[in-house]
# Entry
Amino acid sequence: MKYERFEQLPVWQAGIELARRIYALTGQREFRGQRSLRDQMERAAVSVSNNIAEGFERGTTKELLTFLYIARGSAGEVRSMLCLLEGLAGFQDLKSEISDLKLKAEGVSRQLRGWADSLQNSTITGQRYLSEKTRQAARSRKDRDEFLEELAEIRRGGVKPGG
# Structure
């Protein structure tokens, strides 16, 4: 499936859900008096989906990769702070929620890594570099490949010309 908007991306949706859940966590009474920790967690969580969106909108594969790795780093930062919470006095009542959020952040990180890995060796340079000339070249390559496959099938005796 070709995604035309970052809002359609499953990993962006997962990033938004992570941020929503972090905000719900930091809204708990246990975070009263923990302003800097709360703010840092919220900023890191929001950074995940924002960097996915920014990279997607940049229009080049190279820039997208850069922002995917920044988003992945932010997911790691969220996970690190959740690990910190597990060891802090006063957060034991949130242990299950913290554990679930760590898994969510790890899942987002895995999705980002998978997408980045698939782009690493891609010949796609990005939307910004598409011109009528490059689109025509891509269509020509596709037509040629389809023709060669048809020809190979004919040689194998599977299809008769014109039918």
Q: What stands out?
A: Residues 61-87 form the longest helix (27 residues). Residues 131-163 form one domain. The mean pLDDT is 88. The chain has two domains: 6-129, 131-163.
